[in-house]
Protein 1
Amino acid sequence: ELKVEQNPLFLSMQEGKNYTIYCNYSTTSDRLYWYRQDPGKSLESLFVLLSNGAVKQEGRLMASLDTKARLSTLHITAAVHDLSATYFCAVSSGAGSYQLTFGKGTKLSVIP
Amino acid sequence: DAGVIQSPRHEVTEMGQEVTLRCKPISGHNSLFWYRQTMMRGLELLIYFNNNVPIDDSGMPEDRFSAKMPNASFSTLKIQPSEPRDSAVYFCASSLAGLDEQFFGPGTRLTVL
């Protein structure tokens, strides 16, 4: 059974600071997704990582995937208040599977 | 494309009543997923369909829950009878065959009194 662990689950950081959210998973997979959820809203796709070493960047967020370590990171650079949200990673169970297994989410609060 | 469409957006009902949630996936997508999200349990996969066929319903909490997908553009999730512990946000998501990326609808916030 595929398990996905995120840490930290809660993160409070000051504007302008850098931080990294970690996503570990338990079985081999090379397909990982990051989603963002604003309070009271739906999940919005942020990044799609489909191979070992994949790196994607959008604004102040950068995601990477290390399939050998079964680890993805979401790095936040010079945080701003608008980044406050809950971030989920989701891992594919592999070829032929349609399911994604989601982590519990990291609730990020950026304090002015 | 309008994205995944869900209705109603909010539903308030009394315990014991039947509740039907509706979902229209993105046109051309042939996998559809129903999730439930609560503060306590997080995001849970209830059931998913591929080409209108239920593939895995192991996440459906109990017999009170049922889901159907009569055609490629419509799915329902029914709770009968509803209970207060069913209160949650229910999301529908869809994806394209062979690709995992799921696109989520706006959700239905269900409150059972």
Protein 2
Amino acid sequence: EDKVVQSPLSLVVHEGDTVTLNCSYEVTNFRSLLWYKQEKKAPTFLFMLTSSGIEKKSGRLSSILDKKELFSILNITATQTGDSAVYLCAVRNAGNMLTFGGGTRLMVKP
Amino acid sequence: DAGVIQSPRHEVTEMGQEVTLRCKPISGHNSLFWYRQTMMRGLELLIYFNNNVPIDDSGMPEDRFSAKMPNASFSTLKIQPSEPRDSAVYFCASSFYGDTGELFFGEGSRLTVL
């Protein structure tokens, strides 16, 4: 059974801080790892990673995958209150099934 | 494209009643997923379809839950009879099988069973 574990469970920081969110996984026939941001409604897509060591970047957010150690990190620099959300990590297997982790709840205080 | 469309957005019902949730995936997508989200258990995969065929329904809690996908543009998730512990947000999502890319989520159906 595919498994995704995220840490920390929750995090409170102040605006301007840098945060690192962790995602470790076990999956049969890995195809990709995805990061999502969920505010009040449906999860919205951030990144998709398939190759080790290649950083994906979008503004203040970046992510990298280590397929040997089976983990990924999501970094957010210069955090803003609008970054407050639950961040979800998911892995896709060869059968196209996506398994989500429990999420990290980030709160950014002004 | 309008995205993944779910209905109803909110449903309040009494224990024992039948509940039907509906989903229209993005046109051209051939994989469809039903997830349930609660505070305690996070996002749980209930069932997913590839090309209208159920591939894995091991996440369906019990026989009270059933899902169908009669064609490429419509799916239902039915709970009969409903129980208070079924209260959750149910998300439908779609993607293109064979692609490693993102899963597109609907806005969710918030179910409350009294």
